[in-house]
Amino acid sequence: MKIATYNVNGVNGRLPVLLKWLKESAPDIVCLQELKCPQNKFPITEINNAGYKAIWKGQKSWNGVAILSKNHEIQEVQDSLPGDEQDMQSRYIEAIVDQKVICCLYLPNGNPYPGPKFEYKLSWIKRLKKRAGQLTKMELPAILIGDFNIIPTPFDVYKPEKWENDALFRKEVRKAFQELEKKGWTDALRKIYPDEQIFTFWDYLYHAYDRNAGIRLDHILISPYLSSDLIHAGVDKYVRGWEKTSDHAPTWIELK
User: Is the peptide bond between 27 and the residue preceding it cis, with omega within 30 degrees of 0?
Assistant: First the structure.
């Protein structure tokens, strides 16, 4: 089974890119972030015609997450991250697909640091860690997947010295990522490629993609009850080179 995540940076504006990638890559489950469309503007007809069922949580102009499934029904669990009823940002959707709990997330960017946006990011991470703990306590085969807006280590960024006080690379968020790993969640891409520098995002500015001046923001963390099923992982970097594409590239795993 192939499970992927892709920050599309506008699902309607990048729809031709998304559909082309879906046809070529044919993942079984796809998590999308940054839909940037209200609920009623999600291109469900085109997604269905591509062979996928979908659930989604839209938001006008910003955020938005979706889960697509090619071969299995999608049973929605919740469309927001528990712990803050006042949080109206569409950043989390959770479902059961093929007996796996798929937690699709678009974690807050947090910039500028310091400030209220960074505090919101830390509080969001705290809620995510609590949900992750519940899933492991229930011994469920679960996946935390999406754009984490966290650069886990200096190895995951081009010129890390320039990012020290960026909210993506602050020690607080890196520590939180490490704490998830210590609780048994496996960073799938790093498990498969422990010594290879891999990026999932390249800025539109300064020819970042051409220079491979990237960062790794898109992650797939698998619970202890799935770790032995991991057989492969990768990044479809070439998609970032397509015309009118997202600044992220699709990231994926394969499970037995």
Answer: no
